[in-house]
Specification:
With 250 residues, the chain is an alpha/beta fold. Helix content is 45%, strand content 15%. The structure holds phosphoenolpyruvate.
Amino acid sequence: MRKPFIAGNWKMNTDRATAVELATAVARQADQLNNVELAVCPPSIYLDAVATALSHSGVALGAQNMYHEPSGAFTGELSAAMLLDIGCRYVILGHSERRHLLGETDQDVNRKLHAALAAGLTPIVCVGEQLQQREAGQTRQVIQQQFTGSLAGLSPQDAAGIVIAYEPVWAIGTGKVATPQQAQEVHLDLRKLLADRYNIDVADAVRIQYGGSVKPDNAAELLAQPDIDGALVGGASLEADSFLAIAGAA
Ligand code: PEP
């Protein structure tokens, strides 16, 4: 049985005080939620402060990105070990904003994935098609390509421990949510890819989150789908009440 997992991606939002306030509010109320795992992913500059606010709570800390090298002359980058050191359990990899605004490739995501796992972080690997790809009937092909490239060389044991987030790019930050049926269809495809590439145990173990304009009023229907195991939440994670209402729907 996969435990639902709701993660908040704060992106480049908040300041130090609001990050701490938000994390404190989430941590305070999270205790009342059973059978759902929660994580928040603040901007990296606030990871330390948010880690302190989350201590003694069951809410996990995640980073929004990392670099694949362990250390060295990589100005501005952060390693997996640094994220672990500061208290992260999760790291988001290959978010569509990194893929499409910052030119990150499947190969980049793959390198980061191996480095994250080697360090002991749990990666949340994002995949998702753009609007013109969906309209051209290429969704399955795009997802398969991102899945294959991003997960290349992963052992079944490592694969069983990752989280995948299906985030149709056209639904991110647009208010245009995928229908539960559209999302379920892709989630099922991803689970079949896991079964084909690895085995049925891996396919059963991996949690696949949906992301793209998840809000308190559409979360329950999405999360009721058999292959949707949680949500990666952007905008609605910036308010404790809406984030927790989504978690409550899980
Ligand atoms: C995201 O950035 O991962 C996301 C899903 O954003 P939003 O919920 O705002 O669409």
